[in-house]
Every structure is written in structure tokens, then in C-alpha cells.
């Protein structure tokens, strides 16, 4: 008789296997795609997920300049940053930001979906955003 034992031991950091995901953002809604990206960065879809381990995957996003918003968010949504100096508050609408720096829209949306803890910066470091189809990680996906 074969007796199989199941282990409930959590995965250790040295046994984490990271895979690469390539996601095309063309005509994708920012609010719908951001939770999916954050889930990949956290590793929540893996069977051996542990919230205290950084077991997520690498995510490469292309065509960030072609994302869309629902409703009138393209004009109404405001992105702010503050330099720390008097008069250093910079406010830009999504419409302006998609022309200047389309990557920031996606990065802020995904960052807002991640847990606010020490692992957030490490997870964001595995996110690579490109405004068009050209990216430098072609060798990771087997395409030339």
C-alpha cells in the first residue's frame, strides 16, 4: 500500500520560481487591469502563496500609452506629486499625463493595489512598463 503524505510547510525563499508575463495594455481599462497585474506581482495565483513572502512574478507591460479610462476619468482624474518645497505641488489630469508619461498612470494604479508594507518596493521593481510595443525583455519570452 502506497501512503502519500501531504506537507503543509510553506515555501521557502530559495524555492521560489518566478516566471515572466507579457501583457499588452492596448485598449485595456486601467481600473480593471491593475488588480490583475498586482496579483501577478504578489504571486497570489500560485498554489504556494504566502502573504509574508515575496513570491510574485515578473510583469512586462507594453502599450501603456494606449490604455483607456471609463466614464470621464480621462479629463476628471488628477494625479498629484509634491516636491516638498513651497509651491511644489504639481497637478496633472490623466489626459495630460498620458501624453507626458503614460507609464506613471499604470505604475500608480498598480502601486495603489499592492499592500502597503516592506515588500511593496521589491514587487514594484519587478514591474516593467513601456509606452509602445518595443521592450528590452524579448529574450525572456523567446521572441526575437
UniProtKB/TrEMBL annotation:
It holds the Pfam family Ribosomal_L13. GO terms for molecular function: mRNA binding; structural constituent of ribosome. Belongs to the universal ribosomal protein uL13 family. It comes from Candidatus Roizmanbacteria bacterium CG_4_10_14_0_8_um_filter_39_9. The keyword Protease does not apply. GO terms for cellular component: ribonucleoprotein complex; ribosome. Gene3D superfamilies: Ribosomal protein L13. The keyword Lipoprotein does not apply. GO terms for biological process: negative regulation of translation; translation. PROSITE patterns: RIBOSOMAL_L13 (PS00783). The gene is rplM. This protein is one of the early assembly proteins of the 50S ribosomal subunit, although it is not seen to bind rRNA by itself. It is important during the early stages of 50S assembly. Keywords: Ribonucleoprotein, Ribosomal protein. InterPro entries: Ribosomal_uL13, Ribosomal_uL13_bac-type, Ribosomal_uL13_CS, Ribosomal_uL13_sf. NCBIfam families: rplM_bact. This is Large ribosomal subunit protein uL13. Part of the 50S ribosomal subunit.
